[in-house]
Amino acid sequence: AQEWLQEHHKTLTDITKKDDSAFATVMIQQYYRIVSTAIKANDPNHLYLGTRFHGRVTNQDCTFAASAPFLDVISVNYYHRWTPEQARITKWTQDLAHNKPMMVTEWYAKGQDAEESSPDNIDNQSGSGFLVPTQADRGAFYEHFTMNLLRNPNVVGWHWFRYMDYTSNMGIVNAQFEPYQALATSMQRINTRVYALSDYLLTTATSGKNTSKVSGGDDADADSLPQFMDELVIVDK
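The structure assignment produced for this chain is given below.
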């Protein structure tokens, strides 16, 4: 840091936000270059997913722009949003990262009903995921969130956090490995049809068709939907 200040004729008293970004860019490039080179030298047949960006760094352009040349896939822990923001994902993956693929590597919702039904002393006090009333609501959130991820051509996958409950109802199963069936059913409905859904939703996204309010055939585009989509939850514009 001191060398950078000297090279740019700066002191600690006259640093600007532009300077902050410029220095962060240098550090980010250095870190990901070193790590990527080491990984590729020792494990060339696997993808480097980076460090799962989250929080305030996702609002920092240099995070994506400086790391992208060294990543195979951008990874983001995507919290505090009911619906993935298409413009934001496009900015991350295309505008800043020059068309890199992206994975959502953490997101989830907790069910209040697990506090009473689970044998694991669930209190739902920890974790960044949304708190919803029931397991069915967790399933609806899963369907809604993933359907909207599938509308973006740069999103190549997602990872629900987590497999098993901890002190909060984060899991697909409880500590006795018993599945939350309503959530698991929603996951199965999406995951077993993911490629067909992706093809359909990307087509409607690029053609300009309205895929909102799709729930049971009342929408103008309902007749053109694959039959399995009639029961799925709403997909936002």
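Interim note for the steering committee: Confidence is low (pLDDT under 50) at residues 211-225. The radius of gyration is 21 Å.
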